[in-house]
């Protein structure tokens, strides 16, 4: 074990006021080049094209997750709760700080196109030849493995995992508050201090004192609001579609042996699916944006058009459709082709619930890869119940599915060729 | 003149809650590629390396300046003040929105190295072959010139200029509030709504009702706090030094005919001082950061070291020195050379008041290029006085100079060669 | 009609920043003694005994309801919506300002004991020999009747009534925000500015543009949280029980001809149910609290004990009970009597849903006296739908009943006589 | 010593989010009737007549001072600073909680009229036959004396005194933040968390780490703003004048043997200057307001007029005067008498700096009863300097005197008798 810092370090943070660093290990991790790289990856991907304030990076979010975890543990220690394994403090803090370190540029969008997974990269960074690995190994030889196990949810003590990954973990609590702050909406605010105060370590789990049930309800309702007003915003979806199509087109061209005017090593390897750690670490959003700026001048018109759309925020328009049945889709496809558009790129149907979010589900033992521990209440007689059993409002919103189909498409070419479209299509695309 | 929008557009803004767009011209200006480019230029340059929240762009600041200007004018119109020339509304709004459109990446630092001036570029963008020019010309043929005149402070009606450029203009009011919000400090907050309410158009100037004097005092004190705690922060100065040295070194190498491993067209022209508008518009912070990442692998060790320092935030250390006299500087220079460092790059003395800020100066008719109109109070008998005549606190802080000399240097090589340094130097560099 | 104020007046308000007064009539109404009296009536009754910040008065709430109404109307006027009858501005503003002017001290509690109704008193104040009536009559002879009609919901234009009284009226919007601010909880905050922006006058009703549905959902969820965490708080219920019992006992003693050590004219008339307007206006919370302080020394032990409990905040304890059946109640009654307590005063069963609140009900055409207009959405094709038809989350919480039975009792005498109680009663009263 | 609480208690507080109670003694003190009485004394006296939100009580302020003190001490303990005497924790917390317990209704105004001093009463309450004394004696027999010594600033360890009473003590820090919150102004906000973090116990004093100097400057500037915009507001001064005159007139009548229609025991003793502890504790603001309401019907016209003015907020008007010399005053006096007014009651000259405030004074060893310890900075080499030596801005505002003479008078009788006044007087009173 390494000594604490002789003097506490602080970071001024808009969400938590201050982030406190008390351990030499945490301080050194923050100063590694791999962690500093998170300053070049936005927390919310392309959301800044919808909410202009949302320009914050994964760097600040990672500090925030660390800080919430630190406060939870500090509270457990201050009260001396016997069910908290005090020796797990540092591994928990490191996992909290580093849980997102493997994210690449616009991760969620890229992971849909390429065979890549940020969690796998996080583990490569923890275990590979990196500065982070060097710092972690100073704690002990198997410390990098321990931190990686927490992130992979295979760590032997589930209470440590649940700090970072459960239905109400430090990760979610930070991003809801942070994304609300930077977008400027007030939906995402909930009473963090009260929730921290009612958390209890109990028999290998983190549970909530029943007196805090209303605060948890408030957290879940804030989450619901954030999903619908921020995360699923159809304009953000439009920018993600453009982004995915840029990479899809670049990959397609690459496979066809197209000679790019401009290419960089890490991008080439991404397109080839041959990324190694060193190059992965060079993939950041400035590089992606520089590529888009260069590709805006490529001779492939599809690629250059998509890149200009992204850079200059000329996104696809969307219309809401009730029922995207086969017949309708065929008709739309035919209409686009008839005016010289490419349906593979110039239209997309989006249904929000393809997304990895849900308001709240009490049990997820449904064979999914990732099961998030449910929220458990502890009553005054030490009985445990899952929150939707006790809370009418949580039960009533559990599993609530909402959302509409949206059809995305470039407006101008359709408007220019309106005369060639059927009346039904003109109405569908709202070109009147 | 063009028609208003049929439906008001809004942007959710963390500082002003909402930004309202009511004119077709404003809406189209925001959607030009030159304005969208401001999303790729940070408002506070390298400050995000000191305050991690300060990742906001000039895009959001420009919307904010527009919104404050809109609210001032809307208040003038609502009360029907006769001294407000109502026909100046649109030119004022356009100038507010576009006043920063010529900023390049890390402008303030770059302007110290290269022969470039963001205000000149702003006028090129307004008057050249750009989308912005096209939108402005739809108002009238000379409208681009009018907007440029406001920005150049040569517009015939000084009241319009003073909205955008005076001791208490929409620009400053937005950036103080916005920078305070994103850094997370509460020094910069003042009562914007009250100040807006006490502004009055009066004989070609904008003055403040005397009953609002305390609100103005509060604004000036907030400004004072922001300068000392945010804008002059010595860690931010350190990152700016690194940044300037990167460009100074690159320029030096370029002059020497050095073959860069990696170069891009716009950067090459910047280094050659031959930038044209098209390439200037391609210069953004993602491109600069991509260059730094590539140059981190250059064979020139000085350039690659500086680039790595910037990317991985391994900044120069600083110590406070009382009196940077010749003797001391010579001694420091000799000491650095003795251990193989280059004093041209590995040290820098910084005195905050070389910076283009001051707390408040009532008159600036001192031959400077830019004179900022002072803050004038209007009493109940329609007499005007400059605020420092009436306010003891403003008078007492007027012209207050504060600040210390800081010596910046790379810590590690000095620490490694500590044995070769004199005791006095060891103490100066705080290597104990 | 009377002229506007030559100069706008403002009140600094913690919730709305500033309250703007633009009409001579509104300014004079605020300065009447009957309106100033609202400074001596707390907005939340005894809630300050649970949340110490909740000391705000009905005066500030009334200004807030006025201000929200003013903003709604100002927005209607600015956009020139044809369905807003512009001539109804002043009557709407006056009704908003005065809607609560008839409230007495701790109204909700007193109205359960005495045959009194604050809305009836409001109309007496509007129509009787008062300063408010004088100011209103300066507008026109029938203006007091018009304002009273809005408050009684009999005004011929329902759109005016719905500003003040509907499922999402200015009254509710102000009190949710205000009570949240003063208690210090953040459950009650919602996006007021956005809601104001999506309100539309439409065919005699106020409807919500469908694009604002999520903001309305957020408002309803905030309301839900406020009810459960503030308005129904069991400690507040306990203080209300004490308060009601003080008045119940005083009335009982008065009927028995008890000679009070201290009595005041207005209180005597309250107890006799013979209150006239003049005396009603003298009934305020300082008078009630002075009475409690004096009655704390009365010879009637029940009355003096209750008064001391209220003054010194020695409230009844409560326990949650599942099913308050006859058998249990009889057993509790017997137990209390056995140790010399008076079950009429020393116990009370409370079920929160006896209270005049509900989360949201779309239709209330169930014969109730007061029907609150439901929230209607207006889609892009001008179709109207009630919100719970469109919003899954509103539908899922509509009519949700929640709440538990609580048994209230004085703890000390029970604890002192614990030996005399059955084991079952000791357990029920949690005396272990 | 008594045990800690088995379970921490919390109070929801709008300013500090939560107030934490961890000691049985603190919990019991809060529940005494003498402490609960503070709910019936407003923190800011008559300020609510100027800023309607300022209705908060000394109860919430006292909890706030306690909470800040608790946080300071907790930070000292967490870092294990050797200069903090850990055994002084409880006495410090009790003194913080109770420092204002002796305040009566509208204290500052009343103390100017009657021979009474809230600090003396605080000590009577701590040492007399009260519930508070009983709770304190459970700690030890001399504990009440110890707490009283802290409040009287005679406690042997000055570091304990300085927590509660110095230029930057817990009392001032709470009231600035709290008064700013409830009035709704944002002048009073400063970075409490940062200040708490830079406080250090050092050689019997509490000093500030020099790196926190700017945060202290910000605190002092906030204080300056609060004085001028809230505490010295001329409308508040007007209401205080009315209040003092009510009591002055009541005292005068009492001395003359006037038979009051209504009188209460504690008030009678106040007027007679024969108050004993029991009756003092019955003096609260509801009683004072009830008296005003009753006296509004007294036959003495002066008293009834003053009471009506206070209740219905019909305050004296004020005008600013440059130089209240003898000649002017005589002329005003004569003018008032000429139209039948009483200059002893119907006029008052007010100069704000008669008030017990000042922006900041480094040394106050000027024979005053109360010397507030100055703010000391501790540099990195453990040298101490008074802040105005290091901070230019503090030095520049130190001892700054500002403020204007105001003349207060009832407007209506002067306006009605305008014809009888000289032109000069009409102009002075602004009756045009």
UniProtKB/TrEMBL annotation, chains A, B, C, D:
<dbReference type="InterPro" id="IPR045509">
    <property type="entry name" value="HD_assoc_2"/>
</dbReference>
<dbReference type="GO" id="GO:0008832">
    <property type="term" value="F:dGTPase activity"/>
</dbReference>
<dbReference type="InterPro" id="IPR006674">
    <property type="entry name" value="HD_domain"/>
</dbReference>
<feature type="domain" description="HD/PDEase">
    <location>
        <begin position="54"/>
        <end position="185"/>
    </location>
</feature>
<dbReference type="InterPro" id="IPR003607">
    <property type="entry name" value="HD/PDEase_dom"/>
</dbReference>
<dbReference type="Pfam" id="PF01966">
    <property type="entry name" value="HD"/>
</dbReference>
<dbReference type="InterPro" id="IPR050135">
    <property type="entry name" value="dGTPase-like"/>
</dbReference>
<dbReference type="Pfam" id="PF19276">
    <property type="entry name" value="HD_assoc_2"/>
</dbReference>
<protein>
    <submittedName>
        <fullName>HD domain-containing protein</fullName>
    </submittedName>
</protein>
<dbReference type="GO" id="GO:0006203">
    <property type="term" value="P:dGTP catabolic process"/>
</dbReference>
């Amino acid at each position: 074990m390494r000594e604490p810092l002789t003097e506490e370090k602080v970071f001024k943070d808009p969400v938590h006021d201050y982030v406190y660093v008390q351990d030499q290990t945490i301080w050194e991790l923050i100063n590694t080049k791999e962690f500093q790289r998170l300053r070049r990856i936005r927390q919310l991907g392309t959301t800044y094209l919808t909410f202009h304030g949302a320009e914050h990076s994964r760097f600040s979010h990672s500090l925030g997750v660390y800080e919430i975890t630190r406060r939870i543990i500090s509270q457990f220690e201050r009260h001396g709760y016997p069910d908290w394994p005090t020796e797990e403090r540092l591994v928990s803090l490191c996992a909290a700080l580093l849980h997102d370190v493997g994210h690449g540029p616009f991760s969620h969008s890229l992971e849909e196109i390429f065979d890549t997974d940020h969690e796998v990269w996080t583990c490569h960074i923890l275990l590979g030849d990196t500065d982070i690995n060097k710092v972690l190994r100073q704690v002990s030889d198997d410390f990098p493995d321990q931190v990686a196990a927490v992130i992979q949810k295979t760590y032997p003590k589930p209470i440590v995992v649940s700090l970072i990954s459960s239905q109400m973990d430090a990760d979610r609590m930070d991003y809801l508050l942070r994304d609300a702050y930077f977008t400027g909406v007030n939906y995402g605010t909930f009473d963090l201090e009260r929730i921290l105060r009612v958390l209890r370590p109990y028999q290998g789990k983190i549970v909530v004192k029943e007196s805090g049930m209303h605060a948890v309800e408030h957290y879940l309702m804030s989450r619901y609001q954030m999903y619908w007003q921020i995360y699923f915003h159809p304009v953000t979806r439009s920018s993600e579609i453009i982004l995915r199509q840029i990479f899809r087109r670049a990959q397609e061209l690459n496979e066809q042996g197209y000679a790019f005017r401009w290419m960089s090593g890490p991008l080439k390897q991404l397109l080839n699916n041959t990324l190694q750690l060193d190059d992965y670490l060079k993939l950041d959003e400035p590089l992606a944006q520089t590529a888009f700026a260069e590709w805006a001048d490529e001779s492939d018109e599809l690629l250059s058009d998509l890149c200009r759309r992204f850079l200059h925020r000329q996104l696809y328009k969307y219309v809401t459709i009730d029922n995207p049945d086969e017949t309708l889709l065929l008709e739309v496809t035919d209409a686009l082709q008839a005016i010289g558009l490419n349906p593979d790129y110039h239209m997309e149907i989006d249904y929000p619930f393809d997304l990895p979010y849900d308001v709240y589900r009490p049990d997820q033992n449904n064979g999914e890869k990732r099961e998030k521990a449910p929220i458990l209440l502890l009553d005054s007689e030490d009985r445990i119940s899952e929150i939707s059993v006790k809370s009418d409002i949580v039960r009533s919103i559990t599993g609530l599915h909402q959302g509409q189909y949206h059809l995305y498409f470039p407006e101008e070419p359709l408007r220019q060729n309106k005369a060639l479209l059927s009346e039904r299509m003109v109405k569908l695309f709202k070109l009147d």
